[in-house]
Amino acid sequence: MDETPNIRTFVLKPEQEIPFLAGQFVELTVPGFGEAPFTPSSSHFRRETFEMTIMKVGRATGALFSLQPGDVVGARGPFGTPYPLQRFEGKDIYIVGGGVGLAPLRALFLALTHEPDKYGRIFLRYGARTPQDIVYRSLIPEWQKIPKVDLDLSVDVSDEKWMKRVGVVTCLMDDIPCDEKKSIAVVCGPPIMMKFVNQRLVDAGFQAENIYLSMETNMSCGVGQCRHCRLGPYLTCKDGPVLTWAQIKDIENPFV
Ligand SMILES: Cc1cc2nc3c(=O)[nH]c(=O)nc-3n(C[C@H](O)[C@H](O)[C@H](O)COP(=O)(O)OP(=O)(O)OC[C@H]3O[C@@H](n4cnc5c(N)ncnc54)[C@H](O)[C@@H]3O)c2cc1C
Ligand code: FES
């Protein structure tokens, strides 16, 4: 399904189940074009098929966009550390996404809303460049109806039909409607967005160990061998890709 002009959601049917949990990633190979990591965007409660929402940026992603239904790709995984959902129990969850960064967050959102009694309220704040760049446009109206979910959107540049906020996603964070001292924040998006959203969360009083950031550094092996994905003392393919602000705050320029 085409989400935007350059972002598409692919449905994959693995020969053998890939037992991923929200936050983990899978390495996809397009034969002849290479391998790249992507995070499943569908619910981990359903694994006979899974979805990946992918932005076309280069060689492997370009090749993925030229595949036809029924074509075969390679997949290995799951890799990385999932969101620690047990730690989230009983707490309000404040999720902030930017651009295609909503893809990994969708897997988390679906896991949380699958067992709503376990968690507090779920706040989802999402920013895209323009209304045409919003992913999951057909799903968002349904998400807004889910009890305990509070969702708000912004775009950097509006069109004549846009009725919501205009501005970068931090414009949705002036009023944070949960207890910052106790709540969990989860962020995924482009590095510059992560930097400013994280700063806003810290300023608002979120605890460093309660801010979860998707640190999608360059990866190669995906299994802790090549060290391409090193971020300070961490290998993001093994220790991440989700790391807390408490873990990375002493690293120089973590958002590059
Ligand atoms: C753990 C992890 C999870 C990821 N999950 C997703 C996901 O769910 N969906 C998704 O779309 N992407 C995701 N990515 C990013 C994805 O892996 C890259 O976009 C992909 O590797 C690009 O491969 P390529 O061969 O198409 O591009 P390349 O040919 O390697 O790169 C071509 C050009 O695009 C630039 N480029 C590479 N990646 C990006 C990017 N993300 N944004 C803008 N420019 C880029 C490069 O700098 C280069 O100039 C994830 C990355 C990691 C590490
Ligand atoms: S990608 Fe090779 S060590 Fe992380």
TrEMBL record:
<keyword id="KW-0408">Iron</keyword>
<feature type="binding site">
    <location>
        <position position="226"/>
    </location>
    <ligand>
        <name>[2Fe-2S] cluster</name>
    </ligand>
</feature>
<feature type="binding site">
    <location>
        <position position="229"/>
    </location>
    <ligand>
        <name>[2Fe-2S] cluster</name>
    </ligand>
</feature>
<dbReference type="InterPro" id="IPR019480">
    <property type="entry name" value="Dihydroorotate_DH_Fe-S-bd"/>
</dbReference>
<dbReference type="GO" id="GO:0046872">
    <property type="term" value="F:metal ion binding"/>
</dbReference>
<dbReference type="InterPro" id="IPR001433">
    <property type="entry name" value="OxRdtase_FAD/NAD-bd"/>
</dbReference>
<dbReference type="InterPro" id="IPR050353">
    <property type="entry name" value="PyrK_electron_transfer"/>
</dbReference>
<dbReference type="GO" id="GO:0006221">
    <property type="term" value="P:pyrimidine nucleotide biosynthetic process"/>
</dbReference>
<dbReference type="InterPro" id="IPR008333">
    <property type="entry name" value="Cbr1-like_FAD-bd_dom"/>
</dbReference>
<dbReference type="Pfam" id="PF10418">
    <property type="entry name" value="DHODB_Fe-S_bind"/>
</dbReference>
<dbReference type="InterPro" id="IPR017938">
    <property type="entry name" value="Riboflavin_synthase-like_b-brl"/>
</dbReference>
<feature type="binding site">
    <location>
        <position position="221"/>
    </location>
    <ligand>
        <name>[2Fe-2S] cluster</name>
    </ligand>
</feature>
<dbReference type="GO" id="GO:0051537">
    <property type="term" value="F:2 iron, 2 sulfur cluster binding"/>
</dbReference>
<dbReference type="InterPro" id="IPR039261">
    <property type="entry name" value="FNR_nucleotide-bd"/>
</dbReference>
<keyword id="KW-0001">2Fe-2S</keyword>
<dbReference type="InterPro" id="IPR012165">
    <property type="entry name" value="Cyt_c3_hydrogenase_gsu"/>
</dbReference>
<dbReference type="Pfam" id="PF00175">
    <property type="entry name" value="NAD_binding_1"/>
</dbReference>
<keyword id="KW-0479">Metal-binding</keyword>
<protein>
    <submittedName>
        <fullName>Oxidoreductase</fullName>
    </submittedName>
</protein>
<dbReference type="GO" id="GO:0050660">
    <property type="term" value="F:flavin adenine dinucleotide binding"/>
</dbReference>
<dbReference type="InterPro" id="IPR017927">
    <property type="entry name" value="FAD-bd_FR_type"/>
</dbReference>
<dbReference type="Pfam" id="PF00970">
    <property type="entry name" value="FAD_binding_6"/>
</dbReference>
<dbReference type="GO" id="GO:0016491">
    <property type="term" value="F:oxidoreductase activity"/>
</dbReference>
<keyword id="KW-0411">Iron-sulfur</keyword>
<feature type="domain" description="FAD-binding FR-type">
    <location>
        <begin position="1"/>
        <end position="85"/>
    </location>
</feature>
<feature type="binding site">
    <location>
        <position position="237"/>
    </location>
    <ligand>
        <name>[2Fe-2S] cluster</name>
    </ligand>
</feature>
<dbReference type="InterPro" id="IPR001709">
    <property type="entry name" value="Flavoprot_Pyr_Nucl_cyt_Rdtase"/>
</dbReference>
